[in-house]
Write a structure and sequence with these properties.
Number of strands of chain B: 0
Structural class of chain A: mainly alpha
Number of helices of chain B: 15
Helix content of chain A: over 70%
Strand content of chain A: under 5%
Structural class of chain B: mainly alpha
Order of helices and strands of chain A: HHHHHHHHHHH
Helix content of chain B: over 70%
Largest sheet of chain A: none
Strand content of chain B: under 5%
Oligomer: heterotrimer
Number of helices of chain A: 11
Largest sheet of chain B: none
Largest interface: A-B, 39 and 49 residues
């Protein structure tokens, strides 16, 4: 690709919608904080101390919990682990879902029918409840959590990507490649993937926001990352006991998780404005 | 018609898949299944074999599954390992609470959401509109356990004299029953109401701007309020009913959270308690009942939707002019 | 005589079941020799798209055989002989919007046995020269090109792997009229250079006439008339051809001036074709026999063939 062409193509991308900056900026801020903050007082997150249920102070900006651990450190470590688990799970779920969606769209016919019926089944079930049951049975662990999250969101991603892939498959350049007898995996890789890329990224952001809700709900029930590792939901659950005298853990953890979910939602909407329409109406 | 048949065709498969998974949960538990069900580790192999035979665990998986489904269909969901009472009985006594909460939650969500939506439309551009829009944008991003916990927190701070509001059964005192569920329902409404609000805004805005009959009414001199009440409202509301149905199903599925936080004696909390007690028959039974209801409800709504689709009802120019 | 590049032998295509299907093409037979351009004219529903798809091997005939270079399309793959190529109607969707034009043009070469890897880039450069797409344009993405430029790129892609047959499916219909002439002339010169065999499809008779050595007129899946362009235009046999000609003003010359013929009657549905001649419901000179007996495709005095009980009759009347 020539430099001139790259530059020509780069230009429209820069005028990103404000929503994207808001969400992206927020997410970035939270990310940086979650990485940096615990470094400042990492021992405070795990080690019990005598400073029990203290209000916010300079030493402990968000106070301490019932066994003297620094709330801010715990909140940010929890945030970091949520972000990591959800980030990886979302990427995985959307990647697999995209492949399924593209295959269903390209081959059509019975392949499409079978895949979509399977997807229908998955979408028909109440995910939170089943996640609860499965994790309860298997015993909470980060791996089990990821597996459940990924399995839950693959169908949704495949649905969305399939729609985009169908539009691409209907284009003449795909027909031309088929006529030239180009192998199917090359057609998918060279023609379909680049033209659904935008939708895939949007889906990743959107999936992350949904996953964050479920992940925090699960850890609230004690079924997420196993304690004593701090996770947002668990901090809120712990905090319930002492909420009248020390509401700080609940307030701070709640705010942070809502902000993070908002951030990912906005990034998703912003990306959609940027790339989604372009891909939906995409013509040469 | 075709569409309905397709959806119906998928039903048996879905039900089988769901029940299979629910049943299979028991076998996901690490460790020997006999021990799991017995509640303790049985050392003596002979005793273990006897127990296995008693519990039917020596049969192949699919046979056990079929047997379980067969019994469930007849209302027998096994025995609770912790309380030694029939699971079906435990669930039945609590089902009412869960359903009641879901109904109440949906109703309040719809009322609040729709009212807010219309307020926003009516006072378009003013502060109220912006506040409501902010809520609409943010609402869905709040996990229900967060809104519930914050409400409980708010109550404990603002109304410290209010004692623990425990659930009052409907049969004993209908009004009190509803009142006792008010806060839980509100916590759900904060989240899902925003969705209805957005829907009303979107649909109403669309119709407001574009529909022919709105233009006609205005041409005849009708003011904004009249146009809203007579023309926009009826057509925007109809498909709302199906969305409400879906939301109801959603609340059923999410009952675990609200019931846990507000200590309501519903099926969701039964399942959570059973998790703590490793009472797997109860877990299986509770999950089965809720997921079945969820699947069937969704199907019902799916089938009804084409009938109330605004594109069919609103007429030729109900959407983009 | 060398064997024809494209052969249709008694080809029929039915969509749906034998009993309740739609017969999109009915017993079509035609051969296209090397270097020849066969024009295909018809309205929507005539079966011309299906004809193209069969020629390309994208679908298989329900009855009869389609051959390219003597090989049935059933067993044809890419590579040595290779499949036919196509230039599509819509410039906007013919090229991958994410790829540079040169990459798109290169694609058929990647599976062609005629060109090994080192030779491919050279070949791409050559064919792009032939369609007069300069160096700078080659590395652009389609959205940065005009409609005419995109079509030229499509033509280059079609010709890159030296296919035995190129199908032009309404290739200039979507272009501005001024650009149209340019692209058509380009096609003519490239065709001469490569000695290409073309299947030129359009609903516009004047364009088809400009490009083709022979013309085949399709109506409701049947061949109405087929023959050498010049003689067909001067003395059309089938009423449908006459009607089509009468609608093109600039093809009226001197004593060949015709009254504009407006068809009455109803366009029959392809699912329920009328008995007898498919054109009988709209034909200005239809008689009873036309509605009862389907006329076979019969040879005429001028060497062409037409499926009509009264060939040349409408032409004589109209010219009078």
């Amino acid at each position: 690709m020539s430099a001139a062409a790259r530059k020509r193509r780069g230009l429209p991308r820069l005028s990103a919608p404000p929503l994207l900056w808001l969400g992206g900026g927020l997410a970035l801020l939270i990310l940086v904080a979650s990485v940096a903050a615990p470094l400042v007082s990492s021992t405070g997150a795990f080690m019990p101390s005598a400073a029990v249920l203290e209000s916010p102070s300079w030493a402990h900006p968000l106070g301490t919990d019932s066994i003297g651990r620094d709330v801010m450190a715990r909140v940010f470590i929890g945030l970091r682990s949520s972000f990591l688990i959800v980030g990886i799970s979302a990427a995985l779920a959307v990647a697999v879902g995209s492949i399924i969606g593209m295959l269903a769209a390209y081959f059509g016919g019975s392949v499409d029918w079978v895949m979509m019926r399977l997807v229908d089944i998955f979408l028909a079930v109440p995910t939170l409840l089943l996640a609860v049951a499965v994790l309860a049975a298997m015993g909470p662990s980060a791996i089990a959590l990821s597996v459940v999250l990924v399995a839950t969101f693959i169908p949704h991603a495949s649905r969305v990507v399939r729609v985009a892939a169908l539009q691409v498959t209907a284009q003449d350049y795909v027909a031309s490649a088929r006529i030239s007898r180009i192998p199917w995996y090359i057609i998918i890789g060279k023609h379909i993937v680049p033209n659904v890329r935008g939708i895939v990224f949007v889906q990743m952001a959107v999936t992350m926001s949904y996953m964050l809700v479920i992940e925090s709900s699960l850890s609230f029930l004690g079924l997420g990352v196993p304690p004593p590792a701090p996770s947002i939901g668990y901090i809120i659950a712990e905090g319930r006991q002492w909420m009248e005298i020390a509401p700080w853990p609940i307030i701070s953890a709640s705010s942070v998780i809502v902000l993070l979910i908002l951030a990912t939602t906005f990034v998703g909407q912003g990306l959609d404005q940027l790339w989604g329409k372009e891909n939906r109406a995409r013509r040469a | 018609m075709r569409y309905m048949l397709t959806r119906l065709a998928g039903l048996p498969l879905t039900l089988v898949a769901v029940s299979l998974l629910t049943f299979g949960i028991l076998f996901l538990v690490p460790g020997d299944t006999v021990d799991v069900l017995a509640g303790e580790s049985i050392a003596d192999p002979a005793a273990k074999a006897r127990m296995a035979a008693e519990l039917g665990l020596d049969r192949p998986f699919l046979v056990q599954y079929a047997d379980w489904v067969w019994r469930a269909a007849q209302g027998d969901l096994g025995m609770s390992t912790s309380s030694h009472r029939p699971v079906a009985e435990l669930i039945w006594t609590r089902l009412g609470v869960t359903v009641q909460l879901a109904i109440l939650g949906t109703l309040i969500s719809v009322v609040i959401g729709v009212a807010a939506g219309f307020l926003a439309l009516r006072f378009r551009g003013r502060l109220i509109d912006r506040l409501i829009m902010a809520w609409a944008a943010v609402g869905m991003s709040i996990p229900s356990f967060v809104s519930a916990t914050l409400i409980v927190l708010g109550i404990s701070i603002l109304l410290p004299d209010l004692g623990v509001v425990s659930y009052v059964p409907f049969s004993r005192d209908p009004l009190g029953s509803v009142a006792s569920l008010m806060f839980p329902a509100l916590s759900l409404a904060v989240v899902s109401g925003s969705m209805f609000c957005r829907y009303v805004q979107g649909a109403g805005d669309d119709i407001f701007r574009n529909a022919d009959y709105v233009r006609t009414a205005r041409a005849k001199g009708a003011g904004d309020r009249r146009v809203l009440a007579r023309h926009v409202m009826p057509n925007a509301i109809l498909p709302l009913i199906t969305v409400a149905g879906l939301q109801f199903a959603q609340l059923l599925g999410g009952s675990v959270i609200a019931e846990t936080i507000f200590s309501l004696p519903g099926v969701g909390r039964l399942v959570i308690t059973a998790i703590g007690e490793r009472d797997y028959p109860v877990i299986q039974g509770g999950v089965l009942v809720i997921t079945m209801s969820y699947v069937l409800l969704n199907l019902l709504v799916d089938m009804v939707y084409p009938l109330v689709d605004p594109r069919i009802r609103v007429g030729s120019n109900g959407g983009r002019a | 005589m060398t064997r024809p590049v494209l052969e249709f032998e008694g080809v029929s295509k039915v969509y749906g079941t034998r009993s309740a299907g739609i017969r999109v093409l009915r017993d079509v037979s035609v051969s296209v020799a090397a270097g020849e351009t066969l024009g295909l004219v018809g309205e929507s529903g005539s079966g011309k798209s299906t004809f193209a798809r069969l020629a390309l091997g994208m679908e298989q005939p329900t009855a009869g055989t389609v051959r390219i270079d003597g090989k049935p399309t059933r067993i044809l793959g890419a590579g040595a002989g290779g499949s036919a190529q196509i230039v599509f109607q819509d410039p906007a969707s013919s090229l991958n919007p994410a790829l540079e034009v040169a990459t798109s043009v290169r694609e058929p070469l990647t599976v062609s046995k005629k060109f090994n890897r080192p030779a491919r880039d050279a070949r791409v450069a050559t064919v792009l020269d032939d369609v007069r797409l300069n160096e700078e344009l080659r590395h652009r993405i389609p959205s940065e090109l005009s409609g005419g430029q995109k079509q030229r790129a499509s033509i280059a892609r079609a010709l890159a792997a030296l296919p035995p047959l190129v199908v032009c499916d309404e290739a200039v219909t979507a272009l501005d009229v001024s650009v149209r002439a340019q692209v058509l002339n380009l096609l003519r010169s490239v065709r001469a250079e490569y000695n290409s065999t073309l299947l030129f499809i359009s609903h516009d008779l004047s364009t088809v006439a400009y490009m083709s050595d022979r013309i085949m007129v399709l109506y409701l899946g049947k061949v109405m008339e087929i023959g050498r362009t010049a003689s067909m235009l001067e003395d059309p046999a089938h009423p449908y051809t006459t009607t089509l000609l009468s609608a093109v003003p600039h093809m009226q010359q001197g004593r060949l001036r015709r009254r504009r013929i407006v068809l009455g009657g109803e366009a029959p549905s392809i699912a329920n074709p009328p008995p007898g001649c498919p054109f009988s419901t709209r034909c200005p000179i239809a008689r009873d026999i036309c509605r009862q007996q389907e006329p076979p495709l019969a040879p005429l005095a001028n060497g062409n063939s037409a499926a009509c009980h009264f060939p040349h009759m409408l032409e004589r009347e109209a010219a009078a």
